[in-house]
Design goal:
Helices cover 33% and strands 16% of the residues. By secondary structure, the protein is α/β, with parallel strands linked by helices. The chain has 2 domains: 271 residues, FAD/NAD(P)-binding domain (3-Layer(bba) Sandwich), CATH 3.50.50; 142 residues, Elongation Factor Tu (Ef-tu), domain 3 (Beta Barrel). The chain has a 6-stranded antiparallel β-sheet. A 5-stranded parallel β-sheet has the order 6-2-1-7-16, with helices on one face. The chain starts with 5 loop residues before the first strand and ends with a helix. About 1% of the residues have low confidence.
Length: 431
């Protein structure tokens, strides 16, 4: 009897990693790819693993969150990182690749793999019985998107409108105060006041800052659903003071009402990461750093995640999948890549690897691998299944990790602690 093949839908980063990982374990794979029959508006090549935006996979230094994630994946024998290392180009401390060679190499590897059958087909539905990894990316075609939404009982989000997230350690608490508007609550928000001069300088910088260029197919979807903070500011100098920065309901330490207040909301219970409330933005990342650091309490802000506004089809992960990327509705169906709610190239690769390893374990009659919560992999997986009324896609960052038992004030020492503990716990994990 012929061994049943595992379906992988989508030959992007997550799907390609999943297919190669499954094959390496001796599993038969049927990889579905809609190219060259049709392409999304963002794709230009018929090759697999196409890097649409940048050729950079971010920092390769283990003491950064992105670098640590790569170190973890290399330990787990990640196939696409091997290819990235083969075709890398000089980029300082970052891992950047020759974009064309990377995709060409991924394609060659897959087409030459005896365990992988490539099927060029536009998939519009899926069978909940077969082992299937859906990794169709942020521009998932409409028919399949509808099937996912209908079958999983959770609507898809069609754009990512997220505010920046900053490290709690980087907030100047001498220039901020903790309180809830009108004293309602238990002081859950960190409030960053500005006087008139500071506010007007901030608005002037905000309305003249450089924005990221949107694709034509993104523009209407984003602006109809959510207003970027820089667009709100252009409607008038006081627009933000009567909106997300309104100072009513607050008194500063001297008992006076601030001229304007920027609120920070916890992203995790430990208070390691904070969301800048109402600051969804399309500013370039360098501009976000320059302009948002004009807020006095955020002068030294460390950005764990930049604000983004772009077309990004993704599921509401906490209501749809678990930490193994298994859908809650269909135990044999997995969702990986940016469709699952991770953000970034390497994060997408990680999701394909984790999903594939889970399938392999189940087919072998073993328990699915559990990644330590102290690793970036484990923390991202945990983030996806943690209930969150305002879920947004997430990238690798140290704010996801459990804080040290004893507070470490030095930032460099703290990052080193995270790195050492992560790799130690990963190597000691019972896979």
């Amino acid at each position: 009897m012929e061994e049943r093949k595992i379906n992988v839908i989508g030959a992007g980063l997550a799907g390609s990693e999943a297919a190669l990982t499954l094959s390496k374990a001796g599993k038969k794979v049927r990889l579905f790819e809609c190219k060259p029959i049709t392409r999304s508006p963002a794709h230009h090549s018929d090759d697999f693993g196409e890097l649409v935006c940048s050729n950079s996979l971010k920092s390769d230094v283990p003491s950064t969150a992105s670098g640590l994630l790569k170190a973890e994946l290399r330990y787990l024998d990640c196939e696409l990182l091997k290819i990235a290392d083969e075709v890398k180009v000089p980029a300082g401390s970052a891992l950047a690749v020759d974009r064309e060679k990377f995709s060409e190499t991924v394609t060659k590897r897959i087409l030459g793999d005896k365990n992988i059958e490539v099927v060029h087909e536009v998939v519009e539905d899926f069978d909940g019985e077969d082992f299937t990894i859906i990794a169709t990316g942020p521009l998932t075609l409409e028919a399949l998107g509808k099937s996912i939404s209908d079958k999983l009982g959770a609507g898809l989000h069609f754009y990512d409108a997220a505010a920046p997230v900053i490290s709690g350690d980087s907030i100047d608490y001498d220039k901020a105060f903790t309180a809830d508007r009108y004293g309602r609550g238990e002081g859950d928000y960190v409030n960053c006041p500005m006087n008139k001069e500071e506010y007007e300088a901030f608005i002037s910088a905000l309305v003249t800052a450089e924005c990221a260029v949107l694709h034509d197919f993104e523009k209407s979807e984003i602006f109809e659903g959510c207003m970027p903070v820089e667009i709100m500011a252009k409607r008038g100098v006081d627009t933000l003071r009567f909106g997300p920065l309104r100072p009513v309901g607050f008194r500063d330490g001297a008992g006076a009402r601030p001229y304007a207040v920027v609120q920070l909301r916890r992203e995790n219970t430990a208070g390691e990461a904070f969301n800048i409330v109402g600051f969804q933005t399309n500013l370039k990342f360098t501009e976000q750093e320059r302009v948002f650091r004009m807020i006095p309490a955020l002068a030294n802000a460390e950005f764990l995640r930049y604000g983004v506004m772009h077309r990004n089809t993704f599921v509401n992960a906490p209501e749809t999948i678990n930490r193994h990327f298994t859908t809650l509705e269909y135990p044999n169906v997995y969702i990986a890549g940016q469709l699952s709610g991770v953000e970034g190239y390497v994060e997408s690769i990680m999701s394909g690897l984790v999903a594939a390893r889970s399938v392999i374990a189940r087919l072998n009659g073993a328990r699915e691998p559990e990644y330590p919560r102290t690793t970036i992999i484990g923390a991202l997986c945990s983030y996806l299944e943690t209930p969150n009324a305002a879920f947004q896609p997430m990238n690798a960052n140290f704010g996801l990790l459990p804080p040290p038992a004893e507070k470490i004030r030095d930032k460099t020492a703290k990052k080193l602690y995270y790195t050492e503990k992560s790799l130690k716990d990963l190597k000691n994990a019972d896979f």
